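TA notes, week 10

Several of you asked for a full example with nothing omitted. So below is the full record: structure tokens for the whole chain, then the designed sequence directly under it. When grading your own attempts, check the secondary structure regions first.
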């Protein structure tokens, strides 16, 4: 069965970011139809990502992820080959009148999906235990669940957990949400401003310490 995780914001609610941190070395290759003018731009974004991207090939399908009612989503069942539904929005750069928020939202949307590519492209996932600790989720009680989360790409606990306040959370989506802000090189104040009016989701609202530790964790993968 295909495992999918989409970006949750409704189609059309596009957000922002133009500051680039020193890039990490990109290893992913972005491919797509010859007529998709977004492919070179997406590859450039991967190449200038401030966080690791992992390794693999991303095949772009230039469509909205309508089956998930989302702008974009990533299929990872054949990792390290991924299929990413990402609409061709190159017109945003070629036509006048589009806001910086629209451009930035497209940028961060792609980085969110790259967070999934990194996560599900790695062979082992011990960092997920550190992520649970950073975000103060309740750890799985059974040893088998812990082992599954470390050794299995689509472990159940990685898709459903409970935080310190008893609220249900989706760890893999919050991880990808953290990844996009870190990949864009945002400091904590900028990340907060972006979440208030541009790009947010999956109830990801870290403290300054959690955000710093999340970026440090991801940068070491």
């Amino acid at each position: 069965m295909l495992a999918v995780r989409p970006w949750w914001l409704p189609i059309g609610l596009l957000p922002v970011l133009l500051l680039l941190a020193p890039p990490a070395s990109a290893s992913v290759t972005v491919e797509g139809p010859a007529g998709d003018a977004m492919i070179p731009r997406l590859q450039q974004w991967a190449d200038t990502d401030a966080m690791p991207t992992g390794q693999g090939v991303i095949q772009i399908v230039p469509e909205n992820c309508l089956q998930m009612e989302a702008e974009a989503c990533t299929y990872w069942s054949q990792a390290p080959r991924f299929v990413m539904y990402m609409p061709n929005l190159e017109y945003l750069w070629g036509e006048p009148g589009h806001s910086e928020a629209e451009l930035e939202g497209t940028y961060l949307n792609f980085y969110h999906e790259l967070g999934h590519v990194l996560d599900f492209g790695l062979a082992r996932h011990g960092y997920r235990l550190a992520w649970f600790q950073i975000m103060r989720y309740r750890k799985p009680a059974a040893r088998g669940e812990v082992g599954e989360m470390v050794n299995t790409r689509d472990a159940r606990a990685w898709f459903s957990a409970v935080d310190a306040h008893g609220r249900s959370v989706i760890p893999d989506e919050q991880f990808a949400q953290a990844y996009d802000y870190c990949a864009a090189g945002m400091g904590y104040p900028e990340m907060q401003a972006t979440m208030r009016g541009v790009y947010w989701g999956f109830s990801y609202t870290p403290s300054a310490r959690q955000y710093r530790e999340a970026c440090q964790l991801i940068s070491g993968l």
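Confidence is low (pLDDT under 50) at residues 1-25. Use that as a sanity check on your answer.
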